[in-house]
Specification:
Length: about 375
């Protein structure tokens, strides 16, 4: 039941599969409507349900490794910056020592007979060298380390990160993985909430897997939908049919089969009203019968026109019970199990040739959505 449509159709001896099953499309749309976009197939959902715990564990381990790498990288960076800081400080220490020696060796020339400019300059130098000597004598550390405050802050910040990360490692991992775990649990909750749809998906994929084993001369159209404008009038039911839907339509040499799939448990079969899917099959079958035979009259289904007159198309309604069956019988609807469906289809009399099958499938695919 977990095989993909592509896998089912990989053998040339198998039937031709068209379109994705409707219940899967509905389930994917429901999930996307709740901002869950990680699934593209039923296999994705099965894998998630079987592996979501492992996915959480792997995500936590990935975050733990990332944090460990960040700590290691920070330790390396601290060592590099400390080495750089040490070298820069030593270079500046030498420069400041040279500056102090220069100040101590400086002697101010006598201002007598000096120009006004040189006198002003000498006064300025006196004050400046006095200021610098005071700074280098009484505030040496400020002068030494002042230019390197940014690198000191960087080292301090890295050391804080290292200490905090090592001390609160598990708390940090819990915080970093919290949203991911919440999203995993939310996704799991929605899958559980949509379990009836998921059961329907399993049933329809099981049906497709079995129908794919039909000979290559057969075509299976999944999730068949069609609108009618104007509606098809069903006189006996006093019903105007504007749209129809079928889980699967099988077209092959032995005819056309409308198939409604039900993946009900034994208890569900006892409690469910089988009349609903039976009524839907009859309604869909009637509308499609009217529509297709009109297409023969109009010449759209040209392979069904001959010199002997227009050929009539008939359809068979099939209720396919996947998990369990019932002894109930209904007029115009055949109830079969998964093990019976292909035999029922292939053992019917041949009523269409290859060209007619191809013409009919082409029209059904182009006129439906």
């Amino acid at each position: 039941m977990e095989d993909s449509i592509t896998d089912m159709n990989s053998s040339k001896e198998n039937s031709n599969i068209h379109r994705q099953v409707g219940s899967l499309t509905s389930l994917l749309e429901e999930l996307k409507g709740h901002d869950i976009n990680r699934f593209n197939s039923f296999e994705d959902m099965v894998y998630f349900k079987n592996n979501h715990k492992k996915e959480v564990e792997e995500h936590i381990e990935t975050e733990r490794q990332k944090l460990s790498d960040e700590i290691s990288s920070s330790i390396t960076s601290v060592k590099q910056q400390q080495s750089e800081f040490k070298n820069l400080v030593e270079e500046r220490r030498n420069l400041l020592s040279e500056e102090l020696l220069k100040i101590d060796s400086y002697s101010v020339e006598d201002d007598i007979n000096k120009s006004l400019f040189k006198r002003v300059l000498n006064q300025f130098l006196k004050r400046y060298y006095a200021y610098r000597k005071n700074r280098l004598t009484n505030h040496f550390d400020e002068e030494l380390y002042g230019p390197f405050k940014s690198i000191q802050r960087s080292i301090s910040k890295l050391n804080d990160f290292i200490l905090n990360s090592q001390t609160d490692f598990d708390k940090i991992i819990e915080k970093r993985t919290k949203e991911f775990i919440i999203e995993i649990n939310r996704t799991l909750d929605f899958l559980n909430e949509f379990n009836p749809l998921l059961i329907g998906v399993i049933g329809e994929l099981s049906a497709v897997k079995e129908l794919s084993r039909l000979p290559v001369s057969y075509h299976v159209i999944n999730d068949f939908k069609m609108f009618f404008n104007p509606p098809v009038y069903h006189k006996q039911e006093n019903d105007r049919i504007s749209s129809i839907q079928a889980d699967h339509i099988v077209v092959g040499p032995t005819g056309i089969y409308l198939i409604e799939t039900k993946n009900w448990s034994r208890e569900s079969v006892k409690n469910m009203d089988l009349f609903s899917p039976v009524k839907q099959l009859k309604r869909t079958g009637f509308a499609l019968f009217i529509y297709l035979n009109k297409l023969i009259q109009y010449g759209t289904l040209y392979e069904f026109n001959s010199g002997w007159g227009d050929q009539k198309l008939s359809l068979k309604n099939v209720l396919l019970m996947i998990n369990t069956s019932t002894s109930e019988q209904f007029q115009f609807v055949k109830i079969v199990t998964i093990s019976e469906v292909n035999r029922y289809i292939t053992k019917q009399p041949v009523v269409m040739n290859e060209k007619q099958v191809s013409n009919l499938v082409e029209v059904l695919l182009s006129d439906s959505f």
